[in-house]
């Protein structure tokens, strides 16, 4: 069901396509504009990029278009829907952040959140793992 499909698409094996080229390629395939209709988060240490669509599109259809795209195949990249998860990692948090604040923040519907089951703080890394009661509260 496309309504339940992820808004994010993972591109793997991105090492042969520089970031600027990838952004242009994604605009060409989708017909959309970066920063307006979608964002790209590069994870160079894993040779991965995550594309998140702001505009409501059929991401399953987009993944299919990517798998058929000549340039994507030439770069040996693959595209797949980002699977849902119940946990996320928040980084670069202020040193004084509390688990109560994070709970309230991530439970806010305005922030795209949902009921929080658990928060693990890692003060030495200024990060936290937030676990939601279900996978819908982590967009």
From TrEMBL:
Top-level lineage group: Eukaryota
| Species per Swiss-Prot/TrEMBL record | Molothrus ater
- Mention any Pfam family matching this sequence: RRM_PARP14_2
What are the leading ranks of the lineage?
A: Eukaryota, Metazoa, Chordata, Craniata, Vertebrata
Task: List the InterPro entries.
Answer: Nucleotide-bd_a/b_plait_sf, RRM_PARP14_2
Q: Where is the PARP14 second RRM domain?
A: 5-83
Protein name per Swiss-Prot or TrEMBL: PAR14 polymerase
């Amino acid at each position: 069901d496309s309504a339940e499909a992820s808004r994010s698409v993972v591109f793997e094996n991105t090492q042969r396509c520089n970031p600027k080229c990838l952004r242009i390629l994604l605009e060409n395939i989708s017909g959309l504009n970066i920063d307006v209709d979608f964002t790209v988060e590069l994870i160079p240490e894993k040779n991965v990029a995550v594309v998140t669509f702001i505009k409501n599109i059929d991401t399953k259809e987009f993944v299919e278009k990517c798998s058929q795209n000549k340039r994507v195949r030439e770069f040996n990249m693959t595209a797949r829907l980002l699977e849902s998860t119940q946990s996320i990692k928040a980084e670069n948090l202020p040193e004084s952040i509390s688990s109560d604040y994070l709970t309230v923040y991530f439970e806010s519907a305005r922030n795209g959140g949902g009921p929080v089951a658990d928060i693990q703080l890692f003060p030495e890394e200024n990060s936290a793992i937030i676990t939601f009661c279900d996978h819908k509260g982590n967009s």
